[in-house]
Amino acid sequence: MLASFGVLELPQTLLVAAAGALAGDNVGYVLGRRLGRPWLERHGRQVGLHPGMLARVDALFATHGRKAVLIGRFIGFLRAMAPFAAGAAGMPYRRFAPYNAIGAIAWALVFVLLGHFLGTSWSVAEKWIGRAGLVAGTLALAAAVWWFRRHRRSDATPRGRGDSG
Questions:
Q1: Is 48 a domain residue?
Q2: 28, 80 in Cβ contact below 8 A?
Q3: Helix 122-156, helix 93-118: angle, nearest 10
Q4: Which end of the chain is more exposed for a tag (fewer CB within 10 A), N or C?
Q5: The domain containing residue 114 runs over which residues?
Q6: Largest alpha-carbon pair distance within the chain?
Q7: Is residue 161 part of a domain?
Q8: Contacts of residue 14, Cβ cutoff 8 Å, sequence gap at least 6
Q9: Cα gap 65→70, rounded to integer Å
């Protein structure tokens, strides 16, 4: 928004926003790697992460970690948690870094340009950003619930006696 008023230059604002997003997630990833599982096991219950859920988070990042890093950038509560969880789950940095960079650049482009082009109509942008975040968050939550239920059912199926499908 400040770029649309001429207070900030648009190219520099885009660069600083992307660099800040990239740096912040790299810090989160490093903290996740350094503090890792022991920290999550010790403090995770405070935010609802019990040992069974931690195992599921590890499995999620083993199979869908790149998507979680990329998409998590656009969902408020995941924006801060995904890099830490990726590091704690042992996601290799070479797999984390490109998706983090793509997400940081895309996030900066979307939100800085949205603010720039809507300029004085920021209240309109704020309303639509809130709605988009709510929809994206609801979809992510529904997908997570579906995934956890699916895996809980497959864990409960006796080995060797299930159907073929």
A1: yes
A2: yes
A3: 150
A4: C
A5: 10-155
A6: 68
A7: no
A8: 108, 109, 112, 113
A9: 9
This prediction has a pTM of 0.63
How many domains in the chain? 1
Contacts of the segment 73-82: beta carbons below 8 A, 24+ positions apart? 73/21, 73/25, 73/103, 73/104, 73/106, 73/107, 74/103, 74/107, 74/110, 74/133, 74/136, 75/133, 75/136, 75/137, 75/140, 76/133, 76/137, 77/137, 78/140, 80/28, 82/25, 82/28
Collect all residues with Cβ–Cβ distance below 8 Å to 91 and sequence separation of at least 6.
61, 62, 65, 69
Q: How far apart are CA 136 and CA 27, in angstroms?
A: 25
Q: Read off the pLDDT of residues 108-163 as tens digits, 9 standing for 90 and up.
A: 999 888 887 777 666 666 676 777 777 777 788 788 888 878 877 665 555 555 44
State the alpha helices, DSSP H only, in 5-50: 10-43
